[in-house]
Specification:
With 632 residues, this protein is α+β, with helices and mostly antiparallel strands. It folds into 3 domains: 1-149 and 522-575, no CATH class; 202-495, no CATH class; 579-632, no CATH class. Keywords: Membrane, Transmembrane, Transmembrane helix.
Length: 632
């Protein structure tokens, strides 16, 4: 079982075989998933499969062929074209013929043809290299390709407050997810933007990150605008582009079955000067933003006290939430915070940190000097407001990409078909699991970037924070939430017996066909496997098989046509006469070694199996160079 977004998926969760990646459509998206070591063999095979140089050499040989007298360089070139099977050897031999004859007898226009042949061979070599690169691109190895996940059991680990073991498992699982999401949010959602430069952990999802936009100074999102501290100056809006269920969340489906999801989060520190934020006595404050059944919270903070009796964490966060559909009713906000149709997330931040210099952040601003020297080693240490609350409204929008219409995620819309409604339902439940409230309830202050500024081994002492630290923290938390949303879908096909899993209900394992169908449509990236484009591989194999067939029968077929139409007989004879075995036969006959027949065929033979005298290796006497000086 994989609980972290960057964990290995496990062989039992990955479908090995054929499937359709709907990113590229029914035909172009046909994909074969293999283990990486098997795909490597396939890649090497494709790279070597296509070689049309033999066909090209035959065509050039026949084009140059003539029965007229030609110099020896011509016949050497024809022999090279007849017997050299690779572009490199053709290039090397042709350059050798041109260079040797030019040095020996001077430049002649007839030898320039070997430069053309050499150039053509070089082009073939470049083309072959390009074909090798192309064949490697149709096989995407490891995290460059995508795999299809398969499991009979789909869902997410559910909490059960009456089962302590399951509750512990639930908390442990989601802490791992949120911890991994924090790493992804800080390493993958920043620069660089190019996927080639992303670390391997960033490539676990079909899309490494979801774009998030930010704006500061927007209207207060609550019914009572005075609830926002500093009015619009401290209010921040974050929103995503359309998050595609196929592209971003990995639910493999054709366009007509996809949905698109958008999220808008508007946050503001809450006004601490209203009666809801009530100091009841020295060093004690009561905050009343609504009822949370059977829960109240008490924190001890250091702030101005030097002896506060016992350990105090630098930061502490407590979160609560109210979902837009009221599915979680444990928290009932006051009417001044209750936005109809929107999710409400409320965070209480306790701050016991001393900063070395002042800052002006709306939550973490450190402008208050302590009444006495602190152990941070400076009389001028500063501390921030010990306790503040941040409220966020979250709007969830669902869109139909086919009809280009959008509506609230929690509304009962008829604008989506059955599969789209099931997908929207999964997104709704996934956003609840990956909500800001869950992240901060389980990850707490460990999710804060401000922790990086704490001085090691000095407890509550910290470097000063930037003036926009609140915006930085909120943006990081929302990025964690979006990364967790992706991880939630990636982790949905579990390799367990299904115990304790929900998709919001147990329908994905049993009765709901639309949810069960989605159980077999999750895709992701994983090391150790390769995705092969079946169409491209099939084209290469088809062209390769055709090439082999033409290589095998071209000379015989053309020769048969030449004999039938009585055309080009001399060309055919020259082609056969310059075959390696024919050249060997000619050499034997020149020495009167053996009696041969079948000179018109590809393979000449002797009349019997007589032993041949091995005198062919002895040098022969040639005419003086002066006697052939004029023959060129």
């Amino acid at each position: 079982m994989s609980t972290a977004p960057h964990g290995g998926l496990g062989a039992e969760r990955i479908h090995v075989g054929f499937w359709t990646d709907w990113t590229h459509g029914r035909v172009f998206g046909l994909t074969l998933t293999l283990k990486e070591e098997h795909a490597t063999y396939f890649t090497n095979f494709l790279a070597l499969f296509i070689n049309i140089v033999v066909i090209a050499m035959y065509i050039v040989h026949q084009t140059r062929s003539t029965s007229k007298p030609r110099p020896a360089s011509y016949h050497q070139g024809q022999a090279v074209l007849r017997n050299t099977g690779t572009p490199f050897m053709t290039l090397w031999s042709s350059l050798g013929i041109w260079w040797t004859w030019t040095r020996s007898l001077g430049l002649n226009s007839r030898e320039r043809v070997f430069l053309v042949i050499s150039f053509s061979a070089a082009v073939f070599m470049a083309t072959f290299a390009a074909a090798s690169i192309f064949s490697s691109r149709i096989v995407r190895l490891g995290l460059e390709g995508e795999v299809l996940l398969r499991s009979e059991n789909c869902g997410w680990l559910a909490n059960n407050h009456t089962d302590i073991e399951r509750e512990i498992r639930w908390g442990s699982h989601w802490r791992q997810v949120f911890r991994s999401s924090a790493i992804l949010a800080r390493s993958c959602w920043l620069e660089p933007d190019e996927s080639a430069d992303w670390p391997p952990d960033c490539k676990q999802f079909t899309v490494p990150k979801i774009d998030l936009h930010a704006e500061v100074g927007v209207p207060c999102p609550f019914p009572e605008a005075s609830m926002c501290r500093n009015g619009t100056d401290g209010t921040m809006r974050f929103w995503t582009d359309k998050i595609d269920s196929h592209e971003h969340l990995g639910l493999n489906a054709p366009v007509e079955e996809r949905v698109q999801y958008m999220q808008e989060v508007v946050c503001s520190p809450l006004n601490d000067s209203l009666p809801y934020f009530n100091p009841i006595e020295q060093n004690h404050t009561m905050i009343s933003y609504g009822e949370r059944l059977n829960h109240s919270y008490t924190w001890k903070v250091a702030s101005d006290l030097l002896d506060f009796g016992g350990p105090v964490p630098p930061y502490h966060i407590q979160a609560t939430k109210r979902f837009a559909d009221m599915s979680y009713t444990g928290y009932r906000p006051i009417k001044e915070l209750d936005v109809d149709g929107a999710e409400l997330q409320l965070f209480l931040v306790a701050n016991s940190v001393f900063y070395n210099t002042p800052s002006n952040d709306i939550v973490f601003g450190s402008t208050r000097p302590p009444s006495a020297s602190t152990w941070c080693g400076a009389q001028g240490s500063f501390y921030a407001q010990p306790l503040l609350a941040i409220g966020c409204t979250v709007q969830h929008i669902m869109c139909n990409p086919v009809k280009e219409s959008c509506t609230n995620l929690y509304s009962n819309t008829t604008d989506l078909d059955v599969t789209q409604q099931a997908t929207g339902y999964l997104i709704m439940r996934a956003t609840e699991f990956s909500s800001l409230g869950n992240i901060l309830s389980l990850a707490g202050a460990t999710s804060m970037i401000a922790q990086d500024y704490l001085q090691q081994d000095v407890g509550l002492c910290s470097l000063s924070l930037p003036d926009n630290q609140t915006a930085i923290e909120l943006q990081n938390w929302i990025r964690m939430s979006l990364a967790s949303l992706q991880a939630t879908f990636r982790n949905r096909p579990w390799n367990t017996d299904g115990a304790g899993l929900v998709d919001g209900s147990e329908d994905s394992v049993g009765g709901d066909d639309s949810l069960k169908k989605l159980c077999y449509q999750q895709k992701a990236r994983d090391e150790g496997y390769a995705a092969i484009n079946v169409l491209a591989a099939g084209l290469i194999l088809g062209v390769g098989i055709l090439t082999l067939a033409v290589n095998t029968c071209l000379a015989a077929c053309v020769g048969g046509l030449q004999r039938y139409y009585r055309m080009g007989i001399d060309r055919q004879r020259e082609w056969h006469s310059q075959e390696l075995l024919q050249i060997q036969c000619t050499a034997f006959e020149a020495r009167n070694v053996g009696v041969w027949k079948g000179r018109e065929n590809m393979v000449p033979v002797t009349y019997d199996r007589e032993g041949l005298v091995e005198c062919i290796h002895e040098p022969t006497t040639t005419r003086d160079s002066e006697s052939v000086d004029g023959i060129r």
